[in-house]
Amino acid sequence: MHILALEPYYGGSHQTFIDQWIAHSHHQWTLLTLPAHHWKWRMRHAPITLAEQLNHPKYHSQEFDALFCSDMLSLSQFKGLAPANIRNLPAVLYFHENQLTYPDRFKGERDHHYGFDNYLSALAADQVWFNSNYHRQEFLTATRQLLKRMPDYQSLETVDQIEQKSLVAYPGVDQGETDAQSQPVEPSNQPLHILWAARWEHDKNPEDFFAALTLLKQQNIDFRLSVLGESFRDSPKVFAQAKREFADQIIHWGFLESREAYLNALQQADVVVSTALHEFFGIAVVEAIAAGCMPLLPNRLAYPELLEREQDSLAEFYFYDGSPRQLVDRLIEYHSLKNDAPKWESRLHLAQAKVARFQWKQQISQYDGLLDNLIDPKQSL
Q1: Would you tell me how many other CB atoms lie within 10 Å of the CB of residue 58?
Q2: According to the 3-state scheme, what is the secondary structure of 245-257?
Q3: Taking phi first (over 0 means left), then psi (-120 to 50 degrees means alpha), and beta for anything else, what does residue 197 get?
Q4: Helical H segments across the chain, by residue range
Q5: Stretch 65-80: mean pLDDT, rounded?
Q6: Neighbouring C-beta atoms of residue 17, cutoff 10 Å
Q7: Rounded to two decimals, what is the model's pTM?
Q8: Are residues 151 and 186 in the same domain?
């Protein structure tokens, strides 16, 4: 099949996801993208810009079987502007995030027009895919709540329609040649190496992370620190403060352009910590676990789903209550456990087994198969 993929925000996890799927897929792909800047403007102009691009003569002779796009495209508007042979294609909308529940740094200033665009796009799609069940349920709940606030013609039944055509498709993770599970864990007297691997933004709650490290340092627990992830002009000031405070502990600091360098940095760390207040999936955490990091995660958001906490009581080990105080207590526990190689290895390999299902080599048959069945439902019989 020939798939037309549209990504108006081609950067970060959006870019990694679509590039890796195309690389593993048995389908033929044509990918149209726009730069990953000015997300609000991208959502506004992308339907016009991408429709104009597809009116170019080089696309007139191409035959596509399906359309795939991310939540950054207002699909309903695009269908109204696109050439007839494109607008009538069966369309899949993939939600990496949504603008109804994505955290707003400035409380009370949320522009619901973008969330409403997500809702209309979901209505216009033939299938709606979410990157976690947590995300799916949160979006459906928030959409119902938004419509109930409308003065009339609330059309709540349309949310049921979206629910019926929606499913969960976990994003694939590609670790390249990494096989951390094959590496035996040796006893070590080295300090615990703590990893932060997230965007330098307020929704990732860096204040709690560094507050916990301050408490850890005050208890004379020796540790090493790698703080990765992309920073921005308005990144929280706590990062500059932490760079000074933990200068003696820092191994890596800042964004690593090279994928190889990034994976190597993950492999050097012992534990990946999250303090996030928002996470629809958690690709960075999954990558870190696969690379050999023990997870220590707040018991919220999509994290319990990733490690199947509800299905396996042993997975409770990887979670804390979300407070800096308990995070410190658990880090001290990890610090002690690291010297017991067999126990550490057992715990680590259980976590790696939990996330092995997200590897692209496991996911690709599902992804390509979903597109096959969209075009020819008889294949699912």
Answers
A1: 8
A2: HCCCCEEEECCCC
A3: beta
A4: 12-24, 39-54, 75-81, 84-87, 112-124, 133-148, 157-164, 206-218, 238-245, 259-268, 283-290, 303-306, 324-337, 341-355, 360-375
A5: 98
A6: 21
A7: 0.92
A8: no
Is residue 95 classed as helix, strand or coil in its secondary structure?
Answer: strand
- Kindly report the number of other CB atoms within 10 A of residue 272's CB atom: 29
CATH classification of the domain holding 42: 3.40.50.2000
pLDDT tens digits, one per residue of 222-252: 999 999 998 988 889 999 999 999 999 999 9
Residue 50 pLDDT greater than 90, yes or no: yes
Please name which of 165, 164, 147 lies closest in space to residue 156, comparing C-alpha atoms: 147
Residue 334 in contact with residue 343, Cβ under 8 Å? Answer: no
Considering the domain architecture, whether residues 238 and 100 belong to the same structural domain is answered as: no
SS3 129: strand
Contact 188, 338 (CB under 8 A): yes
User: Which domain covers residue 289, as residue numbers?
Assistant: 180-358
Residue whose C-alpha is closest to residue 265's, from 316, 309, 225: 225
> Rounded to the nearest 10 degrees, how much is the dihedral formed by the CA atoms of 163, 165, 170, 172?
-160
Could you please report the per-residue DSSP string of 145-196? HHHHTSSS---THHHHHHHHTEEE-PPPB--TT--GGGSPPPP--SPEEEEE
User: 52 with 138, same domain?
Assistant: yes
Tokens 């703590």 map to which residue? 194
Q: Domains in the chain: how many in total?
A: 2
With a CB cutoff of 8 Å and minimum separation 6, the contacts of 237 are none
Radius of gyration of the CA atoms of the chain, in A = 22
Q: Residue 184 class from Cβ within 10 Å (0-12 exposed, 13-18 middle, 19+ buried)?
A: exposed
